[in-house]
Predict the structure.
Amino acid sequence: MSLPPDPFENDPFRPSGPGGSTSTIEREELREELEPGDRDRFAHYVRKEKIMESALSGEPVIALCGKVWVPGRDPNKFPVCPDCKKIYDGLRPGGKE
């Protein structure tokens, strides 16, 4: 039984003589990990204590706009939900009507 061909046979970093050496190619990657559907997501308004309860219990929360979900992502990575913002501004004294 023969071995498959060496995929690194023509590698320019491979030493040609006896002995061995290693080389490292460094590359900086500035990619933010996004999950499927993240581009369609918003940061929603929920009472702080409800977020804390959800973090401890795993129970879902209900946003001002009515969305029900279990928080698990950094809300700073998403735009604010326009419906939540509109409702929140209407609740605040002197808010927009």
Remarks:
- The longest helix spans residues 48-57.
- The chain has a mean pLDDT of 76.
- The longest strand covers residues 61-62.
- The CA atoms of residues 9 and 16 lie 10 Å apart.
